[in-house]
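Entry 14. Ran structure prediction on the chain below.
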Amino acid sequence: MKFFSLKMIAVCLCATMASCGNKAAKNSEQKVVEITNPLPIKFGDPYILHANDGKYYMYGTSLGDGFEAYVSTDLKTWTSCGQVYRGGTEEQWNVDCFWAPEVYERNGKYYMFYSANSRNNPTNEGENFKIGVAVASSPTGLFTDLYNRPVFEIDYPVIDANVYFDDATGKTYLYYSRCCYKHPVESEIAEKMKKEGVYDEIEESWVYGVEMKPDFSGIIGEPVLLLAPPTKLDDRQAEWESRSVTSKEVNRRWTEGSFLFKNKDTYYIMYSANHYGGAHYAVGYATSKKPLGPFVKASNNPVLQENRTKGGTVVGTGHNMVLTMPDSTMYCVYHGRMTTNPDERVVLIDKMKVDENGILTVEGPTTTPQQVVY
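Output, structure tokens:
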């Protein structure tokens, strides 16, 4: 028995050493690449999927009748995959304005959530956005609608779908933004602008969350309001979330482009505020102990904004997602505009972190070389 025990110990030691060797070999396979913002991709609302094949697939807003994608093995060199989803045909529920695609890999299939104007528009609304979902067997598509209808119907236009799969509960959550369209809201900033004769009213977009059916065929329960612009001028969030209004860009305050992730026992929801087409587009975040809130906005907002006022060349930073690399480093992926061509949206990637106190920061926008481990 003693000999057997020693033999078993030897076997275990060999197995352990082999395991360590495999881990070391795997780690040795990690490579470092140097990238510089902006990336060579010109579209908005970027979303990167790190697929099981080890490649990175980027989707975004650019085409009038659907979505295109790019693929990379190192986040530096990107190759076009062409159009991966086509919409707007007479047989489909959607018409135009295809925005903000996000793709998730589930059980060997790929699901694309996106926004588009719905064909069902009996009152001829100027904005009639709904959220759809398409499926494909490959991250390069072609994606086809899982259901020839929106995921859910509600009496206001919605955009910017983000999905969170909660491993702790097994539930699936959908986050989206109600559009500003025909949504005037009373607030102290609205009163101030009206008194100054700038705008008669201020429209707002709000972020909601709701549980979604596992097969993505609909929602469970009623959507919950999670984030909205401040109503009081003395709110510490009011200044940065109202810049598009106070600079007289437009009479709207946006809260959109939400992205949810979990760090330890805390849920973080990142969001964009201000005019998506303007210089003041910026990113903030809020935290909660539950996926549907209540969420509390962070005191260090905004965590990502233009750097032109500091001598930089980037404005209009927003609609981000979070990409976690194999070495656990987190990156904020977002679009911005360069001062050399402010009408064109480009993709940028910068490091971000959550410190031991739960404070989230983004190290950007940068336009100097940075190293990425992939």
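The two ends are 48 Å apart (CA to CA). Will compare against last week's run tomorrow.
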